[in-house]
Amino acid sequence: MLAPHFLEVVGTDISPAQLEVARAECHPANVSYRECPAEELPFPDGSADLVTSMTAAHWFDWPRFLSEACRLLKPGGCLVLLSYTMDMELRYRDCSDRLNAVCAQFYEALRPYRPAHLGPCSRLLYRDMYESVPFPDKKW
Hints:
Blueprint lengths: L8 E5 L2 H9 L6 E5 L12 E7 L7 H11 E10 L13 H15 L11 H11 L8
Parallel strand pairs: 1-2, 3-4
């Protein structure tokens, strides 16, 4: 999804198994992968337009990662953290209530398998991360 918008896209993960799965997929020529922890990214200072993480930031050593992201980003660069959440609210035409009821039932079935360190609500965890980002023009 990012490849058409950037000259180079580098996916990183600490897990060799995750990287093996990613590399097995077809991907554009400007996409590559590296094994490293999020807190020790192997790129020069000020070299990234975008640093992003999908459903992983809650595993990071947050102060170290935030420092690393700030080091890596070019002036005007963007840090984007995304997560699937079990406490989201869907809105779609006149069936919002039904959609939310189905999601609530689904997430309730998954709740016993949710890691304890995440707590009952990902939104609160990610809100805390958001509040600690020192950028003046951030958006929730």
